[in-house]
Design goal:
The protein has 4 helices and 3 strands, in the order H-E-E-H-E-H-H. With about 120 residues, it is an alpha+beta fold. The longest helix has 19 residues. The termini are far apart. The relative contact order is 0.16.
Amino acid sequence: MRHELAGLLARGVLRDPALEGANLTVTRVSVSPDLRRATAHVTRLGRSDVDALLPALNRGAPHLRGAITRTLKLRLAPEIVFVADATLDRAAGIEALLRSPDVARDLTPRHDDDGNG
């Protein structure tokens, strides 16, 4: 489902002006246990303004649902809900934290006089 959603978005099947020129990446799709709801996590590489595009994506979700139903030959297609994927932002925050002087100091090995590190 992730691959198909990404392909549909890349081909520009949603004709919403808010999405024009937006290069979106579907990072993962989580489907509920009852298979009625699919949460698609999306991001824009190099940009953090994906939140502004979520309303347009969710408006176009029923159209994408129909296309996925036909392509994947599903009997019951889940409702698709788009959310922003913050994984890259969290990773950048962790990397910045690890590079901070206080943390870097704690990560450098200490050498005691008794030879234990």
